[in-house]
Amino acid sequence: MKALILVGGFGTRLRPLTLSLPKPLVPFANMPMVMHQVEALVEAGVDHVVLAVNYRAEVMEKEMSRHAERLGIKITMSLESEPLGTAGPLALARDILGADGEMFFVLNSDVVCEFPFKNVIEFHKAHGKEGTILVTKVDEPSKYGVVKYDETGKIERFVEKPQVFVGNRINAGLYLFNSNILDRIELKPTSIEQEIFPAMANDSNLYAMDLPGFWMDVGQPPDYLKGMVMYLNSVQQHAPTSLATGTQFVGNVLVDPSAKIGQNCKIGPDVVIGPNVVVGEGTRLQRCTLMESSVVKPHAWIQSAIIGWRCTVGAWARLEGITVLGEDVKVGDELYLNGARVLPHKSIKASVPEPTIIM
Description:
The mean pLDDT is 90. The chain has helices at residues 33-43, 57-71, 88-92, 94-97, 117-127, 192-202, 221-238, and strands at residues 2-6, 27-28, 31-32, 48-53, 74-79, 104-108, 111-113, 131-137, 145-149, 155-160, 169-177, 206-210, 215-217, 253-255, 260-261, 266-267, 271-273, 278-279, 284-290, 295-296, 301-307, 312-313, 318-320, 323-325, 330-331, 336-338, 341-342, 347-348, 357-358. Helices cover 21% and strands 31% of the residues. The longest helix has 18 residues, at 221-238. By secondary structure, the protein is α/β, with parallel strands linked by helices.
């Protein structure tokens, strides 16, 4: 079985992290973002994943070939010479996706959830039509396009950013299609949501399945942190033994075995500590992620922050307000950063009390 993951795009919303790596390779809970999807696909029986890329394909290819070997699957790059939207990449990869006439998955690469792909396959086979889209419940449907469907799941219409309440289920960015959907799509920039789906719904060929559990698009820092909290909560429910335990830890904390943590720290809730990270004594960490080889010196206080690779946070420093440090940033001792977005390789020698981009 095959799957296409839409990983094009420059990842501008997740800068400064995407200045160092393409967004799908940015770590989320100590694994490249896209690998959460790939591993779930493999578990559901997918053995060939196509990545639709138009940015830094060579970096993607190198990293993904390593994972393909580890998982025993094939990963192919489908390189766009121009951005093709969300449907054009299917036409570009038509020869691969349509080769055997089998159904295939299509995913947006920013999405994290519990990926119930085996259930999706069952649901899709049961209704027997051309496409299934996963939908998720949201509190504020007026910010999204709402999906209206009947009790069997058959989609009746899409309502874009409704100002009056028509429903609270939105497109979750995860699909399963029969190969004949490829007949609908030309090789040109095309939106699957605005052009292809309404036509399929008109033909009674598109069904919606409710996504169980959590869902988040983690393509920008506030949502990355929200998604991290949801993900850790899901880990606590389904695989609690992989979370850290001990007197220093509060709530859900994920720690790479190679990390070193000093005495008298208080870590959690909702913290991810990556490979070879060093956390000094007396440090307080909440709702944050520390990426590979970063160093937090003693008595620092970090809340609602993303600390990029190989950063150093000084002693007694305080970081909060969705501060994001790009790769190899050095924050001096006793400084205060509130909502700072710091580009890679910078040294911060003065406090940043208001949200600012530091170039």
